Write a sequence for this structure.
């Protein structure tokens, strides 16, 4: 991303980061951001999706003076080839599929899942909402429960202080910061 910023036209660039309701599973593990101790695939997935949402928050803040807006998106639950490493039994046990392998009600088609991403990239109504977390072609409300199927966004995924905090090690790891902070 940092390498693309200089090429982005002022006053009109939008960046859409794909997050997911998986962010409910974990905020950022500040004491072990790389999961060197106690790796858990679901917590790591949750942290990665939280990080994508925080990226959009910080990019929205840092890029505002350059006309850059950013959003994070929960596309919805979608069975795609991304789940190819899960066995049929595991997908069933996770409640994603019926016993014969069909998606359970509530899962979206890939086209339905893409709708919020396309909306984030194009909807004029979002002009004053840069940094927002979006789902179902709407700005998500703060989650009131821990049930990710209900939707919403956890506060840790939109916290401006955590977004700034995460930007620093990201810039350090990549060696690039388009906004000049070191």
């Amino acid at each position: 991303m940092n390498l693309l910023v200089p090429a982005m036209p002022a006053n009109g660039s939008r960046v859409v980061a794909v997050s997911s309701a998986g962010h409910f599973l974990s905020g950022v593990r500040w004491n072990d951001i790389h999961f060197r101790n106690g790796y858990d695939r679901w917590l790591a997935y949750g942290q990665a999706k939280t990080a994508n949402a925080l990226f959009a928050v910080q990019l929205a803040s840092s890029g505002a003076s350059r006309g850059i807006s950013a959003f994070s998106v929960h596309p919805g639950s979608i069975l795609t080839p991304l789940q190819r490493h899960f066995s049929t039994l595991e997908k069933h046990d996770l409640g994603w599929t019926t016993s014969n392998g069909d998606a359970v009600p509530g899962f979206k088609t890939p086209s339905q899942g893409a709708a919020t991403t396309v909306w984030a990239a194009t909807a004029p109504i979002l002009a004053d909402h840069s940094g927002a977390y979006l789902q179902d072609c709407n700005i998500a409300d703060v989650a009131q429960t821990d049930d990710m199927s209900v939707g919403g966004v956890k506060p840790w995924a939109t916290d401006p202080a955590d977004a700034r905090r995460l930007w620093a090690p990201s810039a350090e790891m990549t060696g690039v910061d388009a906004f000049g902070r070191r």
